[in-house]
UniProtKB/TrEMBL annotation:
Catalyzes the formation of dTDP-glucose, from dTTP and glucose 1-phosphate, as well as its pyrophosphorolysis. Pfam families: NTP_transferase. Its EC number is 2.7.7.24. Keywords: Magnesium, Metal-binding, Nucleotidyltransferase, Plasmid, Transferase. It comes from Streptomyces sp. NBC_00008. The keyword Transmembrane helix does not apply. Residues 2-237 form the Nucleotidyl transferase domain. It catalyses: dTTP + alpha-D-glucose 1-phosphate + H(+) = dTDP-alpha-D-glucose + diphosphate. The gene is rfbA. This is Glucose-1-phosphate thymidylyltransferase. GO terms for molecular function: glucose-1-phosphate thymidylyltransferase activity; metal ion binding.
Length: 298
């Protein structure tokens, strides 16, 4: 499976913070926002990743992440001239996806919860059509809402319904088989002039090949499109990390746990950030995995 992170857009709701920086470069407590969606793809075992951003911000991502080899990844880059909808990412990435399946994640989303990696592994293994993830919300009128049966099959999908049939919001993580490229090519722009990801999901729904898995209690899904939500996300990450002593979306730790890099390579990455709490954490994680020399008896 290939992975796409959509980090485009103009970040207008976060001005003046985004006057010179991409929204996805902004810090969310102790790391750049882009680390959070990147970590989702890594948790799914994905190593080939396309990062789509605006032309003005492409160099910033290249400086931050390079080609991904330091994390055992292969990161490629593409540009979205103007934000024309989430589904356009599938057209921009069509050659990159080639004949593979694809996971598309929005660059301003945080997913964090128990057994998330196992949930992703199951979704990738059993993928037949589209696999979506739902999150129960208090105000479903503000979201794309999915209604499911007892088997998790998607029964209906509505964008910001006045009378919602459920409170399951469709989150910014989408898994598709290779049919998605042709589906995206046949889309027509909506009334607001965008290629809507909801229309992609509706196409799979019409085929009876769409699943929506609810993210259960104890799970957090946050999107960071406003100043308040950006602050709330940072406070959430700070609280979890300081209480539990384990970092969220530490891409170096994930690369080590996934077997993408060795403990020695992880240690080197941590030492490059010496003097920071983040670097100290990466160094500690790596050090625990490096075997200590056996002590010979005198």
């Amino acid at each position: 499976m290939k992975g796409i992170v959509l980090a485009g857009g103009n970040g207008t709701r976060l001005r003046p913070l985004t006057g010179a920086l991409s929204k996805q470069i902004l810090p969310v407590y102790d790391k750049p926002m882009i680390y959070y969606p990147l970590s989702v793809l890594m948790l799914a075992g994905i190593r080939d990743i396309l990062l789509i951003s605006s032309k003005d911000h492409s160099d910033s991502f290249r400086t931050l992440l390079g080609d991904g080899s330091q994390l055992g990844l292969n990161i490629e880059y593409a540009e979205q001239d103007e934000p024309r909808g989430i589904a356009e990412a599938l057209l921009i990435g069509a050659d990159f996806i080639d004949g593979d399946q694809v996971a598309l994640v929005l660059g301003d989303n945080i997913f964090h919860g128990p057994r998330f990696s196992l949930l992703l592994e199951d979704a990738v293994r059993d993928l037949d059509g589209a696999a979506l993830f739902g999150y129960r919300v208090r105000d479903p009128q503000r979201y794309g809402i999915g209604e499911i049966d007892e088997e998790g099959r998607l029964l209906s999908l509505e964008e910001k319904p006045r009378h919602p049939r459920s409170n399951l919001a469709v989150t910014g993580l989408y898994l598709y088989d290779n049919d998605v490229i042709e589906i995206a090519r046949n889309l027509r722009p909506s009334a607001r002039g965008e290629l809507e990801i909801t229309d992609v999901n509706l196409a799979y729904l019409a085929q009876g090949r769409a699943q929506l898995t609810p993210l259960g209690r104890g799970f957090a899904w946050l999107d960071m499109g406003t100043h308040d939500s950006l602050l709330q996300a940072a406070q959430y990450v700070q609280l979890v990390e300081q209480r539990q002593g384990e970092f969220i979306a530490c891409v170096e730790e994930l690369a080590l746990n996934c077997g993408f890099i060795t403990p020695e390579q992880c240690l080197h990455l941590g030492e490059q950030m010496r003097g920071t709490d983040y670097g100290a954490y990466v160094t500690e994680v790596a050090s625990r995995r490096i075997p200590r020399p056996a002590v010979r008896a005198a």
